[in-house]
């Protein structure tokens, strides 16, 4: 069993028969009052986000999940299709609201780690760093290399990130998918 102080970012727990993921958790204590945890949690199945305050008397059942590698194939309407790398005929889908903000980093044939509760696929975990091609950005200005400024660039998945001025279209850059930030240039166009 988990207590209210065990609720940290990324923890999955069972409440009222549903699986929740903690997005944010802040421990607070006011004068002469009991300590509480104010948390932002997300229902894994529906993707609905809730703001809840947990009391010391609250306890939760930790969810036992199985992690399996899956390959992202394609997106059609509001569904994302994945396949098992060992058995290409085994295809599973996730709804757009279940994936959430992670959808902007998905590109075909990328391997992700999916979390399963029994045989039901709940959510996915992306690689922390991914190499993506720059499809659109303003050209760098010659002589403007000494400044530490940034410019907007669109990567092949459609996400917009901030990159240094020397990055051009066609360059392949490494991006941190957790923070959505540029890490380094991997290959020059």
Mean pLDDT: 89
* Total beta-strand segments: 16
Alpha carbon gyration radius: 20 Å
N- to C-terminal separation?
53 Å
Q: Unreliable segments (pLDDT under 50, ≥5 consecutive)?
A: none
* Strand and helix order: EEEEEEEEEHEEEEEEE
- Measured by DSSP, the beta-strand proportion falls in over 45%
Based on secondary structure, the structural category is mainly beta
State the major sheet: 6 strands, antiparallel
The 3D shape can be described as flat
Neighbour order of strands in the largest sheet? 1-6-2-3-4-5
Instruction: Tell me the number of helical segments per DSSP (H or I, 4 or more residues long).
Output: 1
Helix fraction, binned, reads under 10%
Output the keywords.
single chain; 189 residues; mainly beta; six-stranded antiparallel β-sheet; five-stranded antiparallel β-sheet; 1 helix; 16 strands; 2% helix
